[in-house]
Design brief:
Length: 96
């Protein structure tokens, strides 16, 4: 069976996004250094950072809303099945 691998720059981009979205204490700064050394354009790194922050912030807002509903004694609303998988970032970039 052949082993599937990803280019190191893709791994670093995914890791950067995951670190940011998860609020990891290291914040993905090591990956930023690696991406720069691979020659990844600043604009591409900026886009990954924007998308990761958007996903992190959207998740926090959803958790806060569910907490507020539960705290107020209301049954939490079920997510709408037809809802979009994600919303675009402030600049309009898609996170899907």
């Amino acid at each position: 069976m052949s082993e599937v691998t990803l280019h190191p720059s893709i791994v670093a981009l995914v890791s950067l996004a995951a670190n940011i979205a998860a609020n990891h204490p290291k914040q993905g700064l090591c990956q930023v250094d690696k991406l720069k050394s691979y020659g990844v354009a600043k604009e591409q790194i900026d886009l990954v950072i924007e998308i990761a922050r958007h996903i992190r912030d959207e998740a926090a807002q959803m958790l806060d809303a569910r907490f507020d509903e539960a705290y107020a004694g209301a049954a939490p609303a079920a997510p709408e099945p037809a809802a979009a998988c994600c919303t675009p970032t402030k600049s309009g970039a898609s996170c899907c």
